[in-house]
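Before the break, one more example. Copy the sequence into your notebook; we will annotate it together after we see the structure.
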Amino acid sequence: MRQHRLHVTAADGTPVAWGSAGQGDPPLLLCNGLTTNTLFWRVLLPHLEQRHRVVTFDLKGHGDSGPARSHAGASIAGVADDALRVLDAAGVREAVVCGFSMGCQVAVEIHRRAPDRVRALALLLGPAGRVFDTALGPVGPALRRLLRVTPDPAMSVLMPGIARLGRTPFGPWFGRRTGLVGDGVALEDLHGIVGHWGHLHAPSMRRLALDAARYDARAHLPEIRVPTLVVAGDRDVFAPTHRVGEPLRAALPDVRYARLPHGTHASMLEHATDVRAALEGFLTEVAGGASQSGK
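Here is what the structure looks like once it is written out:
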């Protein structure tokens, strides 16, 4: 996990942590998923930083960022505003905005709010619409209801408890048994993922999750005229190909599409070679100024 030592102040006063490494055009902005930090980018980051300036930031209540100080701050729109403030602080006028999981919603919202700041989009293993409608089959709506009714104090106890359980042998067994991750994710990475859950500010995470459940930018997709890469995994229980990847491919006007037949939601770790190939090929095309639809 990259530690962020720089901060910008969000619209609600929350300190938002960010960092930057590497050099080269086009610069990249990486948007994390809910409950995650930069660990999911761990394998890709060294390669990306060899050719690009890479800007990363932590969601409110995650990593090195502070807890959200308002309900509006813990929203997709609030995170998109944070991201634009980070770009300003980094001195980056225009970037390729890359989202993972819920970060895809953030990436699309950044384009909706400030299309002139987005050179291209890369949507990795995530939706543009309501996350729990497509995640985890029938469990997704049930999880959304559970988040809605669980009070913040209970969430603050529950998340560290889940993190502790996830670091026992039961955690990897459960994750692989349910398809949340595949066999290719190293135990160290699994422990890092669930270990981070114990450090989340649970109320901020809960509010952001509920907003992601409501947020829907699918109507905006036909208006996105910049080149867009979509990476989807057939075994991704959070953003399955048939419910997320294929509809994104159909809706976007200027799309490149990489389908991973064995891809899970953790494909940036366990199928990093395939994701890297798709992303680096796309970035080479963007750097060259090409615009040829891959539908």
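The chain has a mean pLDDT of 91. DSSP finds twelve helices and eight strands in the chain. Try to locate both features in your own notes.
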